[in-house]
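Entry, Tuesday afternoon. Goal for today is a structural model of the target with S-adenosylmethionine bound, before we commit to ordering more compound. Inputs were pasted exactly as handed over by J.K., no edits. I checked the ligand SMILES twice against the vendor sheet because last time a stereocentre got dropped in transcription.
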Amino acid sequence: MTKQNITGDSKAIVTNQDGVHEKLEQIVQKHLTHAFEKPIQAHTKSVFDAINERVNAWQGPVILDACCGVGQSTRLIAKQNPEALVIGIDKSANRLERNVEEHFPEDIQGVDNFILARADLNDFYRLVAEANWPIAKHNILYPNPWPKAKHIQRRWHGAAVFPSIIRIGDEIELRSNWRVYLEEFLIAAKLTGRDGEITEISLTEDQTPITPFEAKFFASGQKCWLLKIH
Ligand SMILES: C[S@@+](CC[C@H](N)C(=O)[O-])C[C@H]1O[C@@H](n2cnc3c(N)ncnc32)[C@H](O)[C@@H]1O
């Protein structure tokens, strides 16, 4: 399907954590009991307002593809779910503007039920949660792992915006090549009353990776994991 140049030189995660971060629960509880009051940036607010109109007018399910990178997964999910509106958000204009269409035109020809937009999810998530968007599925595929223990608050479950993240989506799917990231997210989710399970992703010969990062990790012989929160 894809003709991307995937090299198998992706480094395995290096971390100074033995397992789940020892202060995880304390950090999550702090965020669950204190409002995140950092002002919302004007750019993200105007991006949200424009997409909000589309969401309000949409009759079918809405899927959020957070940290979508080049938007490959956004397009593939849109193709697989023609009745859904799929919204891919990433803060990197460089990634969003990369023309991935030319790499797999046969897969996405005619697919137009998706939106790709640049926004900071620390703000965007709060607006989505506040507006109560009816998100059927919320994907966070291969978020930056921030594996150093001191950076736990840069991981989504350790961030001040976590209380909004966990409210979004009847189902949330995270993927990572670092199982501990998903274990931590699941513990944080349980503190809010949600539950889920972690499984290893295995790709059969006819299945292609859903994102460029997944492709790189598989090409490097790394294991990838899936967390489903329901
Ligand atoms: C490791 S990449 C994964 C990209 C894609 N999902 C994939 O698997 O190929 C993580 C992505 O998260 C995005 N990201 C990190 N922090 C973000 C934020 N605060 N708001 C929006 N996007 C963010 C980065 O720009 C990057 O594209």
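The chain has nine helices and seven strands.
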